[in-house]
Amino acid sequence: MNASRTARDRARAELTQEIKNEARRQLAVDGAQKLSLRSVARELGMVSSALYRYFASRDELLTALIIDAYDAVGEQAEKAAEMAAEGGTPRERWRKACHAVRGWARANPHEYALIYGSPIPGYAAPQDTVASAARVPMVLFRILRETNPSPAFEGPPLTEGLAGQLRALGELVLPDGERIAPDLPPETLNRGLVVWTQLFGMLSFELFGQFVGSVDPTDEFFDHTIEQFADFLGLPPAR
């Protein structure tokens, strides 16, 4: 490869990272709704026209930040589950993944809000975000696929419409070619979806101050709840 091209590519990558870092700083101060390329360029000492060579619009910059955030929390969950897999039970993998997600959320509350908070008016996430957004739930679905647990207790039967939606979800092909969970019955997939949404609901309550005056600090409540989630999923007890 041409040396000058390599140097240009490296410089472009570094400036792209600087742009995203400044955008994240502004998200923390003003929120996503007020983010603009002009304000980012001004803080970096750039003219707006120069920044448009890196991101064509505010929405393109937001998409890059959203993908980065999904990838960051997904990587933490995957690593935690993989480390626990060495001699650990599915429940231990689940527990470690949940704590990794919570740790990332508490360390990066503004990025958490960007991907799991209120929708940004006028912004619609493109398909480019799907693979990254799927990383955390796929940690759970892989655990379920490997164990195919029997629920610890019976719940209400699925309607025909919901069962059809869940079968379609299981067959859904991600951008990397992996199907979500083609071998899981709809009832197990439904429990996985319930737990996934409840996990992030609990994290949102914690980060946005909804537990103040009740179970704050939230550590023991979180630990207890993810064990209940594991029971609901039918994961075997940890040794």
From TrEMBL:
Keywords tagged on the record: DNA-binding, Transcription, Transcription regulation
Protein name: TetR/AcrR family transcriptional regulator
UniProt-listed SUPFAM superfamilies: Homeodomain-like, Tetracyclin repressor-like, C-terminal domain
InterPro entries the UniProt entry points to: Homeodomain-like_sf (IPR009057), HTH-type_TetR-like_transc_reg (IPR050109), HTH_TetR (IPR001647), MT1864/Rv1816-like_C (IPR025996), Tet_transcr_reg_TetR-rel_C_sf (IPR036271)
Sequence ranges assigned to domain HTH tetR-type in this UniProt record: 13-73
Chain coiled-coil ranges: none
Residues of the DNA-binding region: 36-55
Organism: Streptomyces endocoffeicus
Pfam families membership: TetR_C_33, TetR_N
